[in-house]
Specification:
Elements (H helix, E strand, L loop, with lengths): L1 H5 L7 E2 L2 H5 L2 H4 L3 H10 L1 E5 L4 E3 L7 E7 L2 E4 L9 E5 L4 E2 L1 H6 L6 E4 L3 E7 H10 L1 H24 L5 H12 L11 E2 L3 H8 L3 H13 L3 E4 L2 E4 L2 H10 L1
Helix pairs in contact: 8-9, 8-10, 8-11, 9-10
């Protein structure tokens, strides 16, 4: 087992199970023939905590998705302060912009905890774009929603209120289009949320209890349940 964990991620891949395939939203919009062919090309692996899926400067080889666990997208700390761009929860597929441009990654993507990730080879991704209208619509919607998410994140990053930063991070992690696998309950520790937001676990705890008193979320064992996503989003912009 230890030897398997030490092997590079691409050497630990397997085929996706029927249950895993059923949970991939974009796969369900494809025509039957495309779905069957693409399903056979998807590869799945378990990423260990701290393991990198994408590294700055490396050429992309897969379009990645999160089947279980939690990832983060960040810059290279060697060039200055560490900046986390976003958390990546279950149901998320990411990196399509990099694949479209076929350029090296400009960010790192790292597992915050043990995570199950899937990958579609870049050539398969490009072939779907070339002939599948449903897939094109899915990718276009992804890009549009992600643009809106990063614009909002840029606006909020200018604020210094820790409660706003926690609210913004939570709201983005419950995005129904980008992260359809989350639902209303996200399994995340306060330490993990602190790593995404750039705050201590203690300060995150204070912010979560503030949001809970406002009936926006409920803190549960092992995670956070959103009771009012629209209210949480309004909290982001009008605190």
């Amino acid at each position: 087992m230890a030897e398997a964990a030490a092997a590079p991620l691409h050497r630990r891949v397997r085929a996706a199970t029927p249950v895993e395939l059923q949970g991939i939203a974009w796969l369900q919009v494809l025509d039957d023939s495309d779905r069957e062919q693409i399903a056979s090309q998807l590869r799945v692996a378990e990423a260990e905590p701290g393991e990198l899926l994408c590294r700055i400067g490396r050429a992309p080889t897969y379009w990645f998705g999160v089947l279980a666990g939690l990832l983060k997208m960040n810059n290279d700390a060697s060039t200055g302060a560490m900046v986390t761009f976003t958390g990546i929860p279950p149901g998320a597929w990411f990196g399509e912009g990099t694949l479209l441009k076929r350029e090296p990654y400009r960010y790192n993507v790292q597992a915050l905890r043990k995570s199950v990730v899937a990958g579609l080879p870049i050539d398969s991704f490009q072939r779907l774009l070339d002939h599948s209208i449903p897939f094109n619509r899915f990718v276009m919607r992804q890009l549009n929603e992600r643009l809106g998410q990063f614009i909002a994140a840029r606006e909020i990053d200018r604020l210094n209120d820790p409660d706003v930063r926690v609210a913004r991070s939570l709201a983005s992690l419950f995005h129904p289009v980008l992260y359809p696998g989350v639902g209303t309950m996200l399994r995340i520790t306060q330490q993990e949320l602190g790593m995404l937001v750039g705050l201590s676990r203690q300060r995150v705890n204070e912010a979560l209890h503030t949001l809970q008193r406002r009936a926006l979320i409920r803190i549960e064992y092992g995670g956070v349940r959103v009771l009012d996503l629209e209210g949480l989003q309004r909290q982001v912009f009008h605190s």
